[in-house]
Amino acid sequence: MKKITVGLPVYNGANYLAAAIESILGQTCPDFDLVISDNASTDGTAAICRAYARRDKRIRYIRQPRNIGAAANYNFVAGLCETPYFKWAAHDDLLAPGFLQACLDALESDPSLVLAMPATTLVDEAGMPLPYSPERGGIVDRMGVCWPALPEQNSDLTSGDPVRRFRAVMLNMFMCVEIFGLMRRPALLRALPQGSFSGADKVFLARMSLLGRFWLGPETLFLRRCHAQQFSAQVSGAYRAAWFSGRRDSIFVQQLRLLLAYCRVAAAAELPLMQRCACLYAVAHRAATRGHQWQRLTGAVVGLPRQRKYKPALHPIVSQRGEG
Q: How confident is the model at residue 151 (pLDDT cuts 50, 70, 90)?
């Protein structure tokens, strides 16, 4: 049996899908299977997937009979994992050849780790690194959107203290690239499913942070593509809700679901009462300092200043996942 399953959920990803698949098949670690779940795409996605599946026996292609929503498609490919390790992949991102091997080596050398992720760089439509703007304090893409500089210097994710790891997700994680790291299957199954609302990927990572340590590799092996068609570039709250679940929830409803999900993760953690309370306080801290609506609702209660560590220039960063 293979050691790694790579799950690639995709919807209308013909623009960058071939490059993403090539980068996966080009890994120096060959010990993996690639499962692609096509969410009833209407472009050339199916033809691309079938062509690659005929060429490489490691690829299993599944086409959904209807669009089941991005969250369900992500959960679907994860649920097919029977190998010791699993990784989600997006149709518009690229892996350097050593990605899987570096992550596998880290996880196999330290059983306390639940997730391994090397460093990330942001690239444009052509796969070229995007420039850093000192004036704007971030990485600027071709559309003029300013993204946080990477890596995020979030070393508390590697801590042996679960509260510090949970706080690191709540307060210091913006790009959420760790969702594309290599994960240990038992932890993955305990953290699933991802919810069908905006920000559910970060809720998943918060749950993972309470199960064990993250490994953050120093070598840049993940290329996160920034382009106009990706989910993160869509500013409509209705679009984001429909992307995840097929429902057109309001921004307020999405934020309420997100906050309650964080609270459930913290309250249900297998930790002493004081540590669970510390995690709940981190949720309150996040609500009071990130997001204008929750600042108004919670800032006075928690007694925290209204500030943000990073302010995107054009729109909030709500997720970094490719279309699913």
A: confident
Specify the CATH architecture of the domain 4-233.
Alpha-Beta Complex (3.90)
The angle subtended at Cα 149 by Cα 229 and Cα 156, nearest 5°, is 115
- Provide the pLDDT for residue 323: 57
Per-residue pLDDT tens over the stretch 257-292: 889 999 999 999 999 999 999 999 999 999 888 654
Q: Could you tell me if 115 and 184 are in contact, meaning their C-beta atoms sit under 8 angstroms apart? A: yes
d(C-alpha 184, C-alpha 114), whole Å? 5
Helices 251-268 and 292-302 pack at an angle, to 10 degrees, of 50
d(Cα 87, Cα 177) in Å, to the nearest integer? 12
Under DSSP, is residue 202 helix (H, G, I), strand (E, B) or coil?
helix
The answer to whether the CB of 210 falls within 8 A of the CB of 278 is: no
CA distance 238 to 166: 29
∠ CA 209-214-218 to the nearest 5 degrees? Answer: 150
> Identity (one letter) of the amino acid at 17?
L
Q: 276: which 2 tokens? A: 């669970």
Q: What is the largest CA-CA distance in the chain?
A: 60
CA trace torsion 12, 16, 21, 22 (10° rounding): 160
> Residue 157, Cα to own-chain centre: how many angstroms?
15
Q: What is the DSSP string of 220-287?
A: EEEEEE--TTSGGG---HHHHHHHHHS----HHHHHHHHHHHHHHHHHHSSS-HHHHHHHHHHHHHHH
Average pLDDT over every residue of 73-78 = 98
Q: At what angle are helices 292-302 and 273-289 packed, to 10 degrees?
A: 130
Give the model's confidence band at 197: pLDDT under 50 very low, under 70 low, under 90 confident, else very high.
confident
172 backbone dihedrals φ, ψ, rounded to 5° = -120, -5
Reported pTM: 0.87
